Amino acid sequence: MIDVLFLVLPETLLLDLVGPAEALRLANQQLAARGRPPAFNLRYIGAQPEVSTSIGLQLTRLEPLPATLPPGAWVVLLGRPGLKETLETLQRNGWMGARHWLSSVVAPALARATTAGAGSHRLLTVCVGTLLAADAGLIGRRQVTTHHEHLATLAALAPQAHVCANRVFVVDGPVWSSAGVTAGIDLALHCIGDVCGEAVAAAVAETMVVFQRRGADDPQRSPLLDGRNHLHPAVHRVQNAVCEHPGHDWGMPALAEVAHVTPRHLARLFKDHAGISPRDYVERIRHGLAEQALARGLPTSQAVEIAGFGTDRQFRRARARRRGDTAIDT
Fold it and tell me: Are 302 and 293 in contact (CB under 8 A)?
């Protein structure tokens, strides 16, 4: 399992903490339902064993800041209600102690994690958490973002960084930063998709009733997110099944069986709630998975197999339809 260390300081915005944490917990739950082991071990650390959050709720029994990070651990830095305090106030609220720990313990681990691949340490920041990372010298020249109210402050703290405005979250190597509040949930869902697969991430989003998942850059978001901004359980069951088993023989009878409705009724449901026919949805998912595999450098034959296409020609025809080509490669 990946140790996920949430750094909890006084006045931490509670939603910045519980939103991502709940998403990761639900991911473990979804993995268990699929007969797979849990992926995330949630831990809560702090410079103080007890803190009061932004809404006054007391959190106790926080672990002390560890002298070393577990292998492949993720560190999550959370937001707080603004940065208008004096340096003395920040020091009383644990900021300075956290900054020292980040620079002495986390920075060397991130320096070794040149990518965000499996087994690498990762830094996740929500809202003002990015400013704490910048103050501790963890940003460097990376692309990062934060809440729109703090973009100028972030640029001042990390003058060499590329501060991205109007972004839900930004991924640059092992540093994953988000705009704050609900964007922390989007960031967590993206992490779940990266580690556990998009089908698990989609199931978590459905449970959390955040079907309209946002990506770091919407034009580049995963095709598995398309058609998910609805609440119809039968359509979601079909979409989950197709995403988990794209290579299955998904004729209308098989899709209708998953939905527990007739094929004709399923076609109406997809049109009303997903804005697409079931057949087109299956092709869109397969095409998107193949394109993602090709973008990772896999050969066409392997990409086609992963996506569930029967032949290379089926993929080429689907690609032509997606691009609106008038001539189909034979």
Answer: yes
Residue 330 reports pLDDT greater than 50 = no
φ/ψ (deg, to 5) at 8: -105, 115
Domains of the chain as residue ranges with CATH? 2-196 (3.40.50.880), 223-330 (1.10.10.60)
Q: CB count, 10 Å around CB of 269?
A: 19
Residue 36 CB contacts under 8 Å (≥ 6 apart), including other chains:
none
For 144, counting Cβ atoms within 10 Å of its Cβ (0-12 exposed, 13-18 middle, 19+ buried), the class is buried
Phi-psi sector, 213: left (phi>0), alpha (psi -120 to 50), beta: beta
Q: Which two tokens stand for residue 155?
A: 């640029």
pLDDT confidence of 151, banded at 50, 70, 90? confident
**Cβ-contact 214, 172 below 8 angstroms:** no
Q: Strand pairing partners for 4? A: 42, 74
For residue 262, report the phi and psi dihedrals to the nearest 5 degrees. Answer: -75, 155
Q: What angle do CA 277, 278, 284 make, to 5 degrees?
A: 90
What are 42's strand-pairing partners?
4
Q: Which amino acid is at 83?
A: L
Helix (H, G, I), strand (E, B) or coil at 149: helix
| CB 79, CB 13: distance < 8 Å | yes
Question: Is 70 exceeded by the pLDDT of residue 19?
Answer: yes
| 269/75 Cα distance (integer angstroms) | 42
pLDDT at 304 over 70: yes
Is 70 exceeded by the pLDDT of residue 150?
yes
219 against 189, higher pLDDT:
189
- Interatomic CA distance for residues 196 and 82, integer angstroms: 34
